[in-house]
Specification:
The chain has five helices and no strands. It has helices at residues 2-29, 35-57, 63-77, 80-92, 96-123. The chain has 125 residues and is mainly α.
Length: 125
């Protein structure tokens, strides 16, 4: 339960930051393209790379710190950062085919699932 609360606290901060970035992008760049999502996904992925790289160089970082920052804050900011980390991890392990399938399946299945959810709800009247 303690880990759950650590992740939840970090997630609240990350989600709040995502909201601020989306609001800024809407005001600065306009509503025609979801630039906020692009900024959040790109920044979150960069930050995840910096964080994981830094944590790998520091001895004795607690699992609570990792959970708060990576799963909580960055996961709340954008799950795309976790998706990016998973894809790069597969690639760096030499599982290039699996990385490609993971990326393609994640995007295609997620978009198909959203269409399915919309279709189900719209069919209910």
């Amino acid at each position: 339960m303690n880990h759950f609360l650590i992740v939840a606290a970090g997630g609240a901060l990350g989600a709040g930051m995502r909201h601020l970035v989306n609001g800024w992008a809407l005001r600065a760049l306009g509503p025609n393209v979801p630039f906020g999502t692009v900024v959040v996904n790109s920044a979150g992925s960069l930050l995840m790379g910096l964080l994981i790289g830094a944590l790998a160089r520091i001895d004795g970082v607690s699992s609570a710190t990792r959970l708060f920052l990576a799963t909580g804050v960055l996961g709340g900011f954008t799950t795309f950062s976790a998706f990016s980390l998973d894809a790069v991890t597969l690639y760096e392990r030499g599982a290039i085919g699996a990385a490609f399938v993971y990326v393609a399946a994640s995007v295609v299945v997620s978009i198909a699932a959203l269409f399915a959810g919309l279709s189900i709800m719209r069919s209910l009247g």
